[in-house]
Amino acid sequence: MTRQADMFINGQSAAPSSGEYLDSENPADGSIVAKVARGTQQDVDKAARAAQAASEVWADISPFERGKLMEKLAVAIEQNLEPLAQLDSREMGNPIGLARLAIQGSADYFHYYGGLATSVLGDTIPITSDKLVYNRYEPYGVVGVITPWNGPLNQACRSCAPALAVGNSVVLKPSEYTSLSSLELAKLATEVGFPDGVFNVVTGLGNEVGAPLVEHPLVEKVAFTGSVATGQAIAEIAAKKVMPVTLELGGKSPNIVFEDANLEAAAPMVLFGFVANTGQICTSGTRVLVQRSIFDQFSAMIAEAANHFPIGLDKEFPTLGPMANRMQFEKVLGFFESAKQQGATCLAGGEQATGPGLDQGLYIKPTIYTDVTPDMRVVREEIFGPVGVLIPFDTEEEAIQIANDTEYGLSSGVWTQNASRAHRVAAKIKAGTVYINTYHDFSIEAPMGGYKKSGLGREKGVAALHDYLQLKNVTMQLI
After folding, report:
1. I need a surface site. Which of 62, 230, 393, 448 has the fewest CB within 10 A?
2. What residues act catalytically?
3. How far apart are CA 106 and CA 413, in angstroms?
4. Which residues pair with residue 139 across a beta bridge?
């Protein structure tokens, strides 16, 4: 019998007011994983009111006690790591090894921010001896969190953990494609002692649940991870409400390989930079800039690595799983057709992956294009699949110019054994993150966020805490 997944509001499961459910499909074989509640504006209102009622209770709990509850939730996630990983793997199609790493990362967010809960300190400002002037950092109240399908539980925890740590309550809207692990997280939070209403999950479609969540008058802050178009729509609503937002949006990140780089180390990591999670990572290093003197050599090396990269859920990690849903699968195939029509040369992949264990799934071969021009769609637009383009350059200045020739600015990479060049180029790249001689470091302590259309605000690290706090100044005349 197919599992039925209801929402989680005010400490308990809640059936959708619509009475309707959406199919959650396994992209590896097309089977139905679960029937997920199709929420409505009415359900959002119920969750927001529960969160608002709980917010004062949660904010009044001492930071030390909040931190202890956060730690308990982290342990509960670890104790349920395997079933949570299986849920994410089945709904999204990521290989189980990668899913396990992502769930451990989810627990680590609550370990990390639970430990930081007591670190938010106010300060005093010396004015005159007869005045006491100080600053307080206070939670907003109800925070709406909207997450994508490419990292179901991990990205939910990335936003929810800092929001909860500083005293906000949360209404989480996960992607309709990947809702199950978020629902389990809310249940675990209640089981370990979070007050009812502090952590709510409303499932459903973006226009039926996401938009009403952003528009709701009780929601005082929104964190969103997803496409630029949706982020712009959220920002427009937020502007009318005069409400702050954290937006972690798209990317078309450059990964620059200089002629003095260690190519044996660089080639597999640069490939991993755009095929990790089947390319469904906003920080993917999809524009590979290679110095012309080593261009042919490096192209051959990375193409060889791509042609032998394992595909299928039954392979050992790292491996390439299916695209998370048919819409994204068809989108990537559309980019292949566009690249062909615009004259790009395909060095590897460029087609659906087939064979034993793959024919029923949404698999794409690791793909590399060369002979590209700046106006091509595969060069300019975010593909969100395992696709990279190779672009030659001659000088350091040209590399920087090409790297910054994009409307995005989320991530970037630099490969060189010259430390001065590495830091010089890092300073010139317009991106929120620069990796040097590595790529896709998933540490929680380092903040991430975008320049330009890649977003507003920061996730991860201590910096994220202040995106979920507002500053109050108090001035008192001493009598």
Report:
1. 62
2. 150, 248, 282, 459
3. 25
4. 469
